[in-house]
């Protein structure tokens, strides 16, 4: 696969690992984070990808951080940027630089339950089915065009943690499948 992928992750990097373990693994050229000790950075390094960290606390404001993140990502000349558990909202300067090439996963069936607590919100609302979404990142919070979705039935005894773990399994597979199709569709 000839595409260059930069993955942004704030946490453990299980979505990143799904990409690394797939046929897309060699396409992941860099892993970036906003957290200097994010386990995702170690996963990326172990796979031979370049790693970088751009911490918001090191900048005067959100725009300066976004510009620094953009510069760090641009160094890797990505075809795609994957926000994989990256818990920051990307600003207009970043999105404009990579318009239409940033994808995100979300643990709910958007447009329902956007934001950081999609699983909790779905349970609180009492829906019987939730799932996961892969979408293009725009300037809103989980508002970009939907590329793919998969459903997950909510069981009567589900806790937030149990449900989220089940969604993550589906989310990893959906991300790999969707990104593989997007790369295959490139001219």
The total count of helices amounts to 6
Pattern of helices and strands: EHEHEHEHEHEEH
CATH topology: Rossmann fold
Q: How much beta, percentage-wise? A: 15-25%
The largest sheet is: 7 strands, mixed
Per CATH, the class reads Alpha Beta
Radius of gyration, whole Å: 16 Å
Number of beta strands = 7
**CATH superfamily assignment?**
Formyl transferase, N-terminal domain
In the predicted model, the low-confidence regions spanning at least 5 consecutive residues are none
Mean pLDDT: 96
Strand ordering within the main sheet: 3-2-1-4-5-6-7
What is the element layout, followed by pairings?
Blueprint lengths: L4 E4 L5 H7 L7 E6 L5 H8 L3 E4 L8 H13 L5 E4 L8 H6 L4 E5 L11 H8 L3 E8 L9 E8 L6 H26 L2
Explain this structure.
It is a single chain. This protein has 187 residues and is of the alpha/beta class. The chain has one domain: Rossmann fold, CATH 3.40.50.170. The chain is built from six helices and seven strands; from the N terminus they run βαβαβαβαβαββα. The chain has helices spanning 14-20, 39-46, 62-74, 92-97, 118-125, 160-185, and strands at 5-8, 28-33, 50-53, 80-83, 102-106, 129-136, 146-153. A seven-stranded mixed sheet has the order 3-2-1-4-5-6-7, with helices on both faces. β4, α4 and β5 (102-106) form a beta-alpha-beta unit. α1 runs parallel beside α6 (160-185). It is globular. The model has no long low-confidence stretch (mean pLDDT 96).
Structure at a glance:
With 187 residues, the chain is α/β, with parallel strands linked by helices.
Name some characteristics of this structure.
187 residues, alpha/beta, Rossmann fold, seven-stranded mixed β-sheet, 6 helices, 36% helix, EC 2.1.2.2, transferase, phosphoribosylglycinamide formyltransferase activity
